[in-house]
Amino acid sequence: MDKEIKRAIILDNYQNPINKGLKKDDSYILKNTNNESCIDNIDMMMKAENGVIKDILFDGEACAICTSATSIIIKSLIGKTLDEAEKIITNYQDMINEKDYDKDLLGELIVYEDICMQPNRKKCALLPSNAVEKILEVIRNEKK
Amino acid sequence: MNRDDFPILKDGVIYFDNGATTLKPNCVVNEMVNYYTKYTSNIHRGDYDNAMKTNEVYDKVREIVKDFINAKDIREIVYTSGATESINLVAFGFFKKYLKKDDEVLINKAEHASNVLPWLVLEKEIGIKVKYIPLDENHELTIDNIEKTITDKTKVISVAHISNVIGDVRNIDEIGKICKSKNIYFVVDAAQSISHYKIDVEKSNISFLAFSGHKMMGPTGVGILYGKKDLLEKTDPLKYGGGMNQSFESNGDYILKTTPIKFEAGTPPIAEVIGLGEAIKFIKSIGIEKIHDYELKLKEYMVEELSKIPNIILYNKNSKSGILAFNVEGVFSQDTSVYLNHYNIAIRAGNHCAKILKDDLEIKNTCRVSLCLYNTKEEIDVLVKALKNSKDIFKVVI
Questions:
Q1: Could you list the residue range(s) of the whole structural domain that residue A109 is in?
Q2: Which ipTM score applies to this complex?
């Protein structure tokens, strides 16, 4: 993907992120996640029914990379099964961490494939995926 | 000024993060290297030449610090690991013993975590009340608001001399007078002011003063607690071990040494103490008033230039120190900071450890430029130029 297109997608998701703003609803699972070494701090809440992700919301203060990644992750996960979501998140994390990953699973998230060129931004890009992981773990434990 | 003393500047970095830590001049580093390469030895225990030399150099620094802040006695100067440990020692070694339930400690919302959390812990542990002196519309601490907040139960006022985000210089002479007249202990966190502003602990009637070496062009890992001698005598150590005891017996009896040695258990950061002494000599060789005047002029220039850029929000134009908090409108502070790094400009983005200031500023995160004597107008021009081009910010950071 062309660098300009990548930048435009990131910027659009930063300036107009999807589903920003939380709500009071006990059917959602809420988790906070923040980077100890920087100032990104986001809350994310997810609702799943019958193993399918129905909705994800977020709020918080974070940089362009972190906010946009949160927005794109939310778009990528809504409507997916929990197993699919887990695969997407694992592949996304592998991409950011410069490991082998399956490009075809990532869709728009591919815009962060060069983020490893700026090592100090990797943690910004990873932050929302940590929130998703935490929530998926809660849901898995609830099922048991 | 004195840029040649700071070799790191030759690499072209524009270092505006002095509130976090300052650069170190050659003289500081060289003296530490001397200790490590020419006379390494422990203190207070050896009878050989190098040990005696170490003792002499190490002990001399207490004199240098005493003179620098106009303390009366070297026994009022305790070596610590930094301002944080100094304040913790005061809170838990002294005030935990002498404060009672409902006694009030006055702080304010612009304080650094290290001058908030120890008091919050004491509030939980022994039931003291932490009260916040209101800040004025410029987020500054005024004498008027201090006087209004004091009650019969106020036992401690603990404030930074210069706040680390707003950079307002608190009138410690006046606060000290108030404390004296009302029998209130006066604790001053001088971490941000010690190398920029003259401090006289006697004149300001300070009970306890805390500062760090690394924010005054000295090494990390060393700091000072000043305390009035009678208060330090009543203070308990937080660390026990070698060097600080007179004797101990198997039946459980022990006798501790007196202040300041009773607070300095274990092998101290010897090289760092030596470096701290050199840093103070360096500051004195230039003159602290001269340093302060120079930095303030630089800040005024920076404010003047940045005020001309429409999308720059300045939070503390008028404070009389080299600290400036700002944001680029609509840009998260960390993105600005990453952007400026592309110009080799080092600033800080975040809450600057003043996590409750957001209640007053109505914004959590800011960019902060904090100046030191080696900064120049030309460096500020580079910053101004970069921020003028800030419409390109996302082209650079994404």
A1: 3-143
A2: 0.80
